[in-house]
Known about the structure:
The complex is a heterodimer. Chain A is mainly alpha-helical.
Amino acid sequence: MTTQTSLSTFLLAGPEITLVIAALVIFLWGAFGGLRQGWLVALAGIAAAACWPGLALVPGELVASGPLSIDAFAAFIRGMVLAAGAGLCLVQAGDHFRSAVTHGPVRRDASTCEEAGTFLLLAGLSLVASANDLVLLLAGLELVSIPTYILLALKRTDARGQEASIKYFFLSLVASALFLYGMACLYGIGGSTSLAEIGARLRSPDARISDTATVLLPVALGMVLAGAAFRLAAVPMHFYAPDVYEGTGPANAALLSTLPKVAGVVVLLRLLSLGTGGTLGMMALNQGVAGPAAAAWLTFFWQTLAVLAALTMTVGNLMALMQTNLRRLLACSSIAHAGYLLVGVAAAAAADATLAGRPFPSPDTAWTGALGGTTATLFYLATYITATIGVFAAITYLGHRWPEWTSGPAPQPPRQEVTSVDDLDGLSSTNPVAAFSLAVFLLSLAGIPPLPGFWGKLSLAMAALEVDWTARATPGSRRVIFLSLAVVLVLNAAIAAAYYLRIVAAMYFRSTKRGVQADGGIGAGVAMLAALGLVALFTIQPRPLLSASSRAGESISAPHALLATPQASTTP
Amino acid sequence: MSPFSPTTLLVLVPLLPLLGAICTILLGRRLGARGHLPAVAGIAGAALVAGLLLVSTVNDVRGDGNGQATRPVEIIAELWQWATVDDAHAGGGDAAGTPVAPGISALDSFSATVTLRCDPLTSTLLVIITGVGLLVAIYSIGYMHDDPGYPRFFALVAMFVFSMSMLVAASNFLLVYVFWEAVGACSYLLIGFWFTRPEAARAAKKAFLVNRVGDFGLAIATFLLWMTYGTLDFHDTWAGDTVVQGILGHTRLADAEGFVGGAVGTAICLLILLAACGKSAQLPLHVWLPDAMEGPTPASALIHAATMVTAGIYLITRSAPLFVGCPGALAMVSIVGATTALVAAGIATVQNDLKRVLAYSTISQLGYMFASLGTGSMLGFTAAIFHLVTHAFFKALLFLGAGSVMHSMGGVIDMRRFGGLRQVMPVTAATFLIGACALAGLPPFAGFFSKDEILAALHAKAHPDQHHSDHADAHAADQIAPNRLATPFRQAAFASNRTALESDAGLERVGLDALDHPSTWQTLFWMSLFTAGLTAFYTFRAVFMTFTGPKRVPTEAGHHPHESPTVMTVPLMILAGLSLLAGWVLFATGGLAWFLAATPSLTAPAIVRTAVTHAFHVDLAVQGSLAAAIGIAIAAIGHLGKRSDSPQMERFLGPLGTLLENKFYFDAIYKALIVRPLEGLSLLSALIDRNLVDGTVDAVARVPLSWGAVVRRLQSGLVQRYALAGVVGVLAIVLALAWQLRP
């Protein structure tokens, strides 16, 4: 670990600073300079941020300075955030064409406000990924939330839109308050805001320190999870999702279903790594005896998350089964996907718990190439984001449906937004490219092989199965719990296939007289095709993404490859 | 990589038709009457590139110019790695990952790479595939004119050329399997091209299903190969600084103990033979090919005569080193081949549908090639490929000629309904006659030379003493390998070999090996000679019925039957030229045999040892030509100059004629033994499925729906309730965790 001066801290935060500067430029240019094509500036800003060096690090390498620490994990998240940001900016640009049709021209600077807000959000998310300090973590999370309120409020001025934005605002405040309370407890454990310090105290073998810490753990974990669950839209903080998605435009729905989820996963994995310190922590520990508090932290983590994962998957899918509104359906399905992601985090926590309290490197462990929950989670996150942005880009691109046209003196009725599943009837004949792309994205989300979503679900299930793989399956053992979790995941994937296929069937097997206008603008179309290209790439060649997620996973969680040996997987 | 390096050329050959197919699919409707352009351009480009590749490979074989370098020549282009599985031999104990011999390592992981190869065999076949493909595509511009599916046809043909090129260029068994299926899919789509016609749809389904039987064999063979050799690659690969022996790689070929014989080896070979029987329409899986003539005639010419059906020949030739260790399996190849040749030729003698005559003739000629492969000698393998090449020319010619007749006769193909067509369509008649002479094996047409070599290979095997070949002891030393093991499975396979060795001081013989006996080969030789006579008979019977006698045309042909357009007759003339010259040129120079001998698969010591000096066997040539002449004479007596609907010769055959007309009752037997019971089973399954399974599933599906209704009710829309639920949930978590901390 290298200590650097504060100037290097700013250098480390280069991409975030670039994004904020770009946001300010867009704000000011939009307000005073009459910038119309904000998204062009936005793409330039993302390109500039992406050019910043240090996006790719090898596992084990860590550059830390002040409250920031950049490792392979942070680099992976940064890359994902920037890519998603580029897609979202394109979708937003398309959304403007679209909403101008129904709602009339919006305020001229509203579009630039949105681009700029998104940029602040990206910067916040990127900071969350590299935060090594509770204060910066909270600041980053708030930087994710506050622009979201603005985006939601800007988008729709009708009653539903306002309702959605107020709902999101209040519930987000509740979640943030709970999260802050959890952080206070963590501060109580560590006596410092630095995550490294807190982790060190948690892993301390000193009985006095660890006893004090253990008492605070339930509250700390419960409250922190509340904050993460809200961002992930996981049980019990999932209620807002359908109402908010329905009340806002598809671009905002795309944003809500991707970026906050990244934030939630990042927070969970960062806090999880307090228990082990990641590969580096394990190496630094070397003598290997982690404190009982760390073991309790990891155990609580996987116990809670296993339950939440099962509940979230099931609730999300059951809700989605009944929906006819497209955005509501996707909101419910995004809850279910949060549940899938939690399976991976829970598996990672369980595997870490096995390793805690074990000497490292130890003679009874060997590298076997096990995948690991963290890797699976990150891989799934990337495939989910690609397909989700693709779906919303396609919906934005489709825009409006032609009205029922009857020739006669009656005036032509207004065009209607594409909102319900029925609006997609017969899309395969009226707009085959969009129908094909949409079908590919939905099938990937459903987890149909060989699309990337399938590999993601497979690796999640494998990660769950790898927990105590060689242990005997006695009732109530971790092996049985994770086996059941994998079964629940597979059953849920089957339920999910029902509603995804319903949409595909509407596009391909029903016919309609009313075409879809495809007035969503070129931006959304480009985003859709780019997402399709990425999905195709991950289908043909998932290896680079998989190895990138595995590098990132290894840097933040314990080296999972050490686990799958008979000796190493006895239940503590 | 220079733009003209062999590797680039090798990648371009499949790539160009693929691009053509994609362009046709994307632009098809826009191009309208020019829908053939992308496909024809792509195939033409591929043909050009394949020609360049052939020249480059010939130069490689020629080596330093002394003309006798027959070192193995191969170019490997690894494109990308598709998937890998670490520890694929899990449970294999310490065999995985440890070097099995100094410098030679076994794979402990399974990797599926997309790797192309080029060697003399591949480059020869690539030229045939793209060349015949190009001629057929050009011909189709005229033939398919005005068909509503015009662009679809060309997209499929281009897709087929892509798949077939990949099949012969693939350098591992997995990729071979993928494209084995891909050509099958293209074939299915082209047979069912006019899918609104029930016969076409049925024929497509039949072809696909019968082929599945063979594909199943290939799949099992692939599994066995992987378990035995620990890799699926043909070529050697490097893992760090150790060589991983490919199944057909140089190091294994040089290693006299590299191949597994005995029961496992024979099983692999028989499964490969099953696969080859499916694709190449050999007994007992030949029933799909005659029905496949429901497809457009150019597709029949390309896929079901010249190229795809020879995939089985290719696969066996490629796997030759595996086969030469298993004499029983080799003998089976010949027995299947010669029997098929005889049976199919017999059936062809009584067919009245011109295309079906040609279809049975294809089956019969493929049988010849199998018979030749089964001899397991250098002459046998090169003769089979030689016949493959000449057959591709003359059979494509005959099919395109039949298509020309059909085109002109308004879709009628029953030979009894027309006659004397040489007055109507002279070019077609002349070129068809050349093709028929080649098929009948008349000197100096192409078929004569290749068929002569096949007969020579069989004769050599039947009379080893006359041919100064030391083949008799060729397989004594090549099969038993010591402990150079890749997989535990292989250890077991060898263990049984070794036990056999210790007990009776010979290699492990399987019961099937008893078939490898001179008397078998003598029988096969005489069967083949008789088949040659039958071939000449049915070929000229078709020629006489179609083109001689009084001029008659069916009413469907309209008032003014005419010769086909130039775009159709030019490919006919090119193919006729090739059918006339190719055999002579390739035989006289000995070039093809010399070239093919540099294929890595054919440099296995057991095959090289059987190489005999190139010789023209006068006695065999005389016997073969005599058989052909007798056949033609009988055909002339029966049909020359007579009305084609006059009474047929089969009335002299009595019960044999009935048997032949019913095609040996193969279809009826399959229907009774397989189709009917399966139909019954599927009826039963359908009943169970509809009532029991569907009922259960519907009941299960109602459960999530009802739960969903409950969950939905919780979604009240009131923000204060949401917040309350969230906080209560968090408190529940905190309390549950704190409960665990109780002292």
